[in-house]
Design a protein that fits this description.
With 69 residues, this protein is mainly beta. It has a single domain, classed as OB fold (Dihydrolipoamide Acetyltransferase, E2P) (Beta Barrel). It is built from one helix and four strands; from the N terminus they run E-E-E-H-E. It has a four-stranded antiparallel beta sheet. A hairpin with a 3-residue loop joins strand 1 and strand 2. The model has no long low-confidence stretch (mean pLDDT 90).
């Protein structure tokens, strides 16, 4: 896989919450650290996603914000 995004986090699908149009995918990138993505059902099917599958969470850097108190 080649992608221009610099923020690709390798992990394992921990859980798939099935919705009516979109599915919520929980990816564990390290013990106790999870990333959640909501993608279309057709994308879940096209990627053959299932619990335990190794995947990448690709984050578009321009959409990540940092905040402090």
């Amino acid at each position: 896989m080649k992608v221009s995004a610099r923020n690709a986090l390798k992990g394992t699908v921990k859980k798939i919450e099935v919705g009516s149009v979109n599915d919520e995918i929980v990816i564990e990138i390290s013990p106790g650290v999870e990333v959640v993505a909501i993608i279309t059902k057709s994308s879940v099917e096209n990627l053959n996603l299932s619990q335990g599958k190794e995947v990448y969470a690709v984050v578009k850097a321009s959409d990540v914000m940092i905040a402090v108190d």
